[in-house]
Design a protein that fits this description.
Blueprint lengths: L2 E4 L6 H10 L5 E3 L2 H6 L2 E4 L5 H10 L3 H5 L5 E4 L1 H4 L2 E4 L4 E2 L4 E7 L10 E6 L1 E2 L14 E6 L1 E2 L6 E6 L3 E8 L2 E4 L7 H12 L4
Parallel strand pairs: 1-2, 1-3, 3-4, 4-14, 5-7
Antiparallel strand pairs: 5-6, 7-11, 8-10, 9-12, 12-13, 13-14
């Protein structure tokens, strides 16, 4: 099985690669559109600004490769947000694979942004990505923007208000948290992704 991890020069790629190695999978860190298109799985990691990251994707010719990818694709943190139509962050146009606009966390004294730390998952519907994950399991978040709630939401977390923590639609999957930094729970989610049929 070939797993392409999209290289953009930003984000959490090293920890994603180590997490795959711990699961016995050697990922390929690449910004080559052809290699991404030919992979069995693609992981789109991301830490940073949406508009800047989309510019990098387009400069490397990766936007079209990701939009046309028909096998399992996992977006992590900003990578999940980029699956949507657009983001308030830099007024970015996303990949447009899931309907909706990413918005900044509402300002709240009791929940300052960025949201950094461990929060509980509440599963909202069954998905192969969350198989074996118990309700209330903790995962690690670092983010200031949240995806819209909708049909793609499969789990939420709470930080001042509930927000989508995991999404799934067709071959597309996303985690707003960092599974590669979320211990045994994150490892199970990554293993679930790697076990999805092509």
């Amino acid at each position: 099985m070939s797993v392409a991890v999209v290289r953009l020069g930003v984000g959490n790629t090293a920890s994603v690669m180590f997490a795959l190695e711990r699961l016995g999978v050697v990922g390929v860190l690449t910004d080559d559109a052809e290699r991404i298109a030919e992979a069995d799985r693609v992981i789109l990691p991301g830490v940073g600004a949406a508009a800047h990251t989309m510019r990098l994707l387009h400069a490397k010719g990766l936007g079209a490769a990701l939009r046309s990818f028909a096998r399992p694709l996992l977006g992590i943190c900003l990578g999940q947000q980029l699956l949507f139509d657009a983001s308030e962050e830099g007024d970015a146009v996303g990949l447009g694979l899931i309907a909706g606009r990413v918005r900044r966390f509402p300002a709240a004294t009791q929940a300052p942004t960025p949201h950094m730390g461990w929060s509980k998952l509440q599963l909202t519907r069954d998905s192969p990505l969350s198989e074996g994950i118990r309700p209330g399991a903790y995962t690690y978040f670092v983010h200031s923007y949240v995806c819209p709630n909708g049909d793609a939401t499969i789990a939420t977390a709470d930080y001042g208000a509930a927000f989508p923590a995991m999404v799934a639609q067709r071959n597309l999957f996303g985690c707003q948290f960092h599974p590669e930094r979320s211990g045994a729970v994150g490892a199970r989610i990554l293993q679930n992704f790697l076990s999805l049929p092509c």
